[in-house]
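Repro:
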Amino acid sequence: MKKTLFLFFLLPMFCFGQNIDSLYKKADSFWSRYATKYYYSISEIRPVGKSHSFWYRTQTPQGTEFFIIDGNKESVYPAFDQQRLADSLSSVNKNKTEAYKLSFSSLRFNDKLDSLFFNIGDDGYSCALDNYTIAKEKDREQRNQNRYWGRASKEDSKDRIKSPDGKKEAYISEGNLWITDLESRKGERLSEDGSPYEYYSSNIYWSPDSKKIVCCKYRPVDTRKLLLISSSPRDQLQPKTEDYDYPKPGDALPVRRPTVFLVDEKKSIPFNVPDVEAQYDLNRVRWDKDSNYFTFNFNKRGHQQYFVYAGDVSTGELRAVVKEESPTFVYYNNLYQHWMKDGNELLWISERDGWRHLYLYDTPTGKVKKQLTKGEWIVKSVVHVDEEKRMLIFKGCGMDKGEDPYLEKYYTLNIDNGKITPLTPENATHNVTFSSDYSCFVDNYSRVDMPPVVALRSAKDGKVITKPDNQPDTTEAEKTGWRMPEVFSAKGRDGETDIWGMIIRPSDFDPDKKYPVIEYIYAGPHDSHVPKSFGISYWPSGLAEMGFIAVLIDGMGTANRSKAFLDVCWKNLKDGGFPDRIAWMKAAAEKYPEMDISRVGIYGGSAGGQSSMGALLFHPDFYKVGVASCGCHDNRMDKMWWNEQWMGYPIGKEYEECSNVVNAKLLQGNLMLIVGELDNNVDPASTLQVADELIKHNKEFELVMLPGVRHTGGENYGERKRRDFFVKYLLGTDTPKWNEKEKK
């Protein structure tokens, strides 16, 4: 009887252990179970040269296939005979190549569609499609895959810049500007005041008439270095060190002072830029077509003023063509400008009326001729400008009320009469690829809750020209058990603004059960981040399979809505849109009681790592468990360009108020920190400093440091640790015994 009773108590534990193992297997196999059964979606598409054709890659029941959408023939057909190409490739490489597993990269056709060029690994190939003869390409330019994104330019290269007429070249020697007459080979120095410590920039701009040069006097500064230790290098026993250029908020910046040189007259004209010492950057130097003036952009540090200046060579005076100002910040990376060929008009994008819209400037006077777009919606980007027809194509969001305001749609705009014509009217986000002449485009439109539709359309009026017979198909994935995510919106903190997000449920979802909720967060103000295009798998999809409901939300303080919506982030990154996120989840739980918001976890990387920890520090009553990967936990520790944009300059008390390090003492929930020791995007010391502060306050947390890893969400090991953490603290059960599994 005792033995039977023991087995009775042991049985549930054994079954539950088996169940936990199966949950991990379900998470690991999500992609293979579902994504491999999603057919005919476009995974890559490109226009073919100057033609009206496009090639695209897709997955079919056979494998990977390539098709042509022909705008002239208004038809869709196989791009080439894949079996013949595979046979030819097998002969060349002496390895068996499978016809429907062609692993091409950098694929392109010639205009006549009779030749194909592609790469496999580092090798380049060409294929004549009349007889399928394949040849290896010679002297293929090697791609630089190790270029560091943050490398500082000292503008001191030795490059020689040839004049437009080809008769002279300009260069910098010993800090001064020189020119050489290419016929006589005689060199002349145009400046006298350069030195190795304050020199003329190697960014040299010739005027169209080859008689003038703009060059900036450049005062360099010492650049802060990010120092990293590779503890476990693959090629030696002993550790290595690395260093990278890495200016941080508050660091000194170089100063540029523009000067015009009149080449024949051997005369220089310095231009006095207001607040020149306060520059964040001075760039985009260009000449007008008649060589009478040059223009440049001036971004004042603090990002509250942004100017486009014109320098008149005849007077030596500057005038402001555009003056963009904001009491919070001008998001300079989102600015757009297009100079008309005659130089008298400029297209400009601004958020000055509270929404991101297009303006037409009269450049001689610096006055706005007209606001081209207006309303409670945004121009996300300008795609193409046809100056002869006085038409442009732009991508906009939010024009159609009642729809998700983040959906991307395309429109034409008549610059003169302001008429806007929708090219993609369907209630979806439209991923568009234009022909080289912008006369037609392939529209691949979808929503998170609507599989894609693919169509070739006219860029004049959006009329559908043709569609592939085989449209993206989720039938087989659904038969296997795949569950479509849900788009959900609710009111934010103010009770008025719609906040949009998505809900991902496990494939075996049972509405009668209660599920912990996990939010995947990225709240960087530079964009909005909840997916809008259809996909079989999203970032948290595998995690949801383990018995969670996953959510993604765009709260206030992110982009692509009104300026007021975005401005919530200003000097306030700790806000993270959390009041909106919490209100959204409460509304979702009210509609869907299966969402147990007494058990809420959160995770994210980079800025999302900062927010994940911030959720536990500043909203401990709601968020109970957090996993923060590669977080910038104190904005003074992170890269200058990103943090000064939102947190301001000079460095103020707001940096401390938003710091996870300073506020580490507030931790109440369960926290895991993940960081790669070689992260050259966000200084890994930021994670270690927050760990140090948590230790000082005797706080309990877990730290996972990954040797040899750079900016990361955790890679495979970190993903396993993240799952373990949520299983332990949200599901309340033991995780698999990984070390015992390894022994087996």
